[in-house]
Amino acid sequence: MDPVAFATVSSFSPYSPPTNRDNHSSATPEPDIQAVPLEELPRLSTETQRRNGFRQSNAPDRSARIIEDISNGNYSCSISWGNELNHVFNIHNPIRPQVENHEFHLASRLRPVMHSSQPFQYYERFSGSSSQTQHIAVDVDIKKGHWRMLKLNGPDLENEWMADAFKSNKTLPEFSDISEELIKTGIFTGISPDNPHMTIPELDLVISNMHPFLYGCGQQPFLRVFNVAGKARDEGIKMASKLWTNKYDESIVMRTASFGHGSQRLDMCVKEGNIRDGSGEQNVEGMHDDLLIPMALISAARKRVEEMDEDPSRC
Known about the structure:
alpha+beta; 6 helices
């Protein structure tokens, strides 16, 4: 796959990692996870710039850094993460304007069923339109460990209002019913300090070091999602445990980066096109729908941790 073909998502600005009540948080990357100390990274954080006497105003801007990524054969796309009060995500490619931009909304939904333990009674919905599918949603039931992807017959205006519009429109609007068609469904594994990686078995994807990403500061710009198709489970976990490097790796389909903004901004780079060679799929222009699922999982889990934490603090 062409390493230059990637998608961009943006609309998170300052981000607020929560305080870790279990003492797994650290202001520096955990030594068994990171390969390169922060001061040696090509994109220096604000803290590192201060420590090295490098002025933030002299740092290359975000577009220049993305272009530099392309010239180095790395990722050309990004996702920007907003704070916990803004859950609107703009997927765009700043380098390839011919790729259509898309907006997604993340909000909590409640659909209780009496005397039932079935999933998707309280869940997070990530909805919008993609390059492949107009009106699509990914639901994430964090407690039950389930996800599902749905084709909708129209925009989910209720989700859009709950994600952001309610702040400017305090009156509850009337929403039209929308129909939902199940595209695919699956599970994701739980995480802990001893099992930091989250696996999405139906998609052959592993989110590396999800636990320290959610509960610490050092891992925020170093999250990676690996395509482990064709690998045994142990081999996939070994891939996800590899030390971080800024070199291109074709198995990485998503990764976070701070692009020199330190804790003021967090971006996510997403690979464009087909993510599985030889899949027989028609070529995809833009981000593949399957990558909406780890994107939704990461965003929903991060939102839930922020909401549950009693005293969120900036790193």
